[in-house]
Specification:
The complex is a heterodimer. By secondary structure, chain A is mostly helical. Chain A folds into two domains: 16-118, Rna Polymerase Sigma Factor, Chain: A (Orthogonal Bundle), CATH 1.10.1740; 123-232, Winged helix-like DNA-binding domain superfamily/Winged helix DNA-binding domain (Arc Repressor Mutant, subunit A). Helices cover 71% and strands 0% of the residues of chain A. Chain A has ten helices and no strands. The longest helix of chain A has 29 residues, at 65-93. The longest helix of chain B has 17 residues, at 71-87. In chain B, helix 2 packs across helix 3. Chain B is built from six helices and nine strands; from the N terminus they run ααααααβββββββββ. Chain B is of the alpha+beta class. Classes of the chains: A mainly alpha, B alpha+beta. The interface between A and B is large, with 68 and 63 residues.
Chain lengths: 240, 205
């Protein structure tokens, strides 16, 4: 189940020490209730407090209004099941804030529900689309990092010559090797930029950087590093 | 979802949430980044989660409680929430799930606020700190505004809060003539919604 650690919910009740790690009073009230009526009231209060956040989370997966409302109801039902098993698991082990955890779990529940209803995309289609996206992303990255193309280097783009195919393969091989020499953090920035198509502002937010300008600076350093690595491997142009 | 031992396994919900909150150890964060490097699905989940959290930040009861802003803003938000939930969102016990969802949909539709417009200086124009003021359009309702000025390297030069829609630079703020700076305004409305101008730039005369 999303968010679950095996064995983490064995009917444990919070003690005073555990309660200090739970940041939400509504959650604390709910998990400390022994009386069913009080528990219902506490659940109602928690839902009222966190419904706006939950709606944002489900809408990010199911933007269309009717689907979002169905997903919202589904999430509430899943959070309630087994005497709030997921909420108890968070309370025992949660290092994150409750709101953040709630968003992550709600989105995962919605995605799982969507897959149950509609299935995943056929594997072949998914692979073909992903492969095409990766080829385009590599081409863009190569164009950005390699030196300007000289006219003499231009080859007919529509040509299917073996020569061109070999050269393209060599370029990608050199790029793969250069990328492998980057740090993990730098590779993640490139993937967010070129594979996921995020703006610099979105990348900054995703990685916890102060502003988009920090992302621009990091990208410039990465491009310079890649150019050096490609030059070492004999790549002076992105033209095949 | 599988557990999160090592960089190959997907991140658990708790681990991903801790990453988004910046509460992982350095080693754990490195493992998470290594996984994001390999797994496009988890990477997308992380960026989408971040986007939702940023958008919905003013709506989070846990953040409001832990980092209260002004007392007036907190009380206003609590009162607004009480009114909304008393009128719009009945108790779960008394309504069917579908009725609860319909009411929640009404609330969500009311939460979207248009971007905040700027008035002066026009984007990319020159700016005289001694003579000019930064001016923006009013958001609806009684809003609090937070202005931020950054230099070209992204360093924060100045930030201030106001309930007005214009600000003249404080005398102790030093901007370098001929240099480019970036500014933005975030607005927090009384009912907890928020909007922003996004980032604009000017060159100092």
């Amino acid at each position: 189940m999303p968010g679950e650690r095996p064995g983490a919910t064995d009917g444990l009740r919070l003690n005073a020490t555990d309660a200090s790690t739970v940041h939400s009073p509504e959650l604390q009230d709910l998990l400390h209730c022994t009386d069913p009526a009080a528990g219902e009231a506490a659940w109602t209060r928690l839902v009222q407090s966190y419904t706006p956040l939950l709606l944002h989370a489900v809408r990010s997966v199911a933007p269309q209004s009717d689907a979002a409302m169905d997903a919202y109801v589904y999430v509430l039902e899943r959070l309630r099941e087994d005497e709030f098993r997921r909420l108890r698991a968070f309370a025992i082990d949660g290092r994150s804030s409750f709101g953040t955890w709630l968003v992550v779990v709600a989105r995962r529940l919605c995605i799982d529900r969507h897959r149950q209803l509609y299935g995943r995309a056929p594997r072949g289609e998914h692979d073909a689309a992903a492969a095409q996206a990766e080829r385009l992303a590599r081409r863009r990255l190569l164009d950005l990092t390699a030196l300007p193309i000289e006219a003499a280097d231009l080859i007919d783009e529509s040509s299917d010559s073996p020569e061109r195919a070999i050269r393209v393969a060599e370029l990608h091989c050199a790029l793969d090797a250069a990328l492998a020499d980057l740090s993990v953090a730098d590779r993640v920035v490139l993937k967010l930029r070129f594979e996921d198509g995020l703006s610099a502002q979105a990348i900054a937010s995703a990685l916890g950087l102060p502003t988009q300008f920090h992302v621009y600076r990091q990208l410039n350093v990465i491009y310079a590093n890649l150019r050096r690595q490609l030059a070492v491997r004999g790549v002076m142009s992105s033209a095949p | 979802m599988p557990d999160d031992d090592g960089a190959t396994a997907h991140l658990s919900a708790e681990r991903l949430a801790s990453y988004l909150d910046g509460r992982l150890t350095t080693a754990e964060r490195d493992l998470a980044l290594a996984h994001f490097d390999r797994c496009a699905d988890c990477r997308r989940e992380m960026t989408e989660g971040r986007r939702v959290l940023a958008l919905a930040s003013p709506l989070r009861p846990d953040l409001v409680r832990r980092a209260p802003r002004r007392l007036v803003t907190v009380v206003t938000m609590a009162m607004a929430a009480a009114v909304v939930f008393a009128v719009i969102l009945p108790t779960v016990r008394d309504r069917s799930p579908q009725q609860v969802a319909i009411r929640a949909s009404d609330r969500l539709a009311a939460e979207i606020v248009p971007p905040l417009g700027t008035v002066s200086p026009p984007a990319g124009s020159t700016f005289s700190p001694q003579r000019d003021a930064l001016v923006w359009r009013s958001a609806s309702g009684n809003a609090e505004y937070r202005l931020t000025i950054l230099d070209a390297d992204g360093g924060r030069v100045w930030t201030t809060s106001t309930s007005d829609t214009s600000v003249a630079l404080s005398a102790d703020v030093r901007l370098t003539p001929g240099s480019e700076y970036f500014w933005s305004v975030d607005a927090l409305l009384a009912d907890g919604r928020s909007t922003t101008t996004r980032v604009h730039h000017f060159t100092v005369k």
